[in-house]
Amino acid sequence: MIPSRGGRFEVMRDGTPVFEKSKLDRHPRPGEIVSLLGRQA
Fold it and tell me: What does pTM read for this prediction?
């Protein structure tokens, strides 16, 4: 985890963005991050 400011919420895996709140203009839905990470395995 890397702390930030300004309401940013980003999830990256091996340097690749998985979820970026700033681009989607929303928070992730329950289970969404786990699902996205599973697809990239």
Answer: 0.73
Q: Which residue has the tokens 């970026």?
A: 20
- Do residues 36 and 18 lie in contact, with contact meaning Cβ atoms separated by under 8 Å? yes
What are the beta bridge partners of residue 16? 13
The model's pLDDT over 1-41, given as tens digits with 9 standing for 90+, comes to 777 777 788 999 998 999 999 999 999 999 999 999 987 65
Using CB atoms within 10 A of its CB, is residue 36 exposed (0-12), middle (13-18) or buried (19+)? middle
Token pair 């699902």 in the structure block, residue: 35
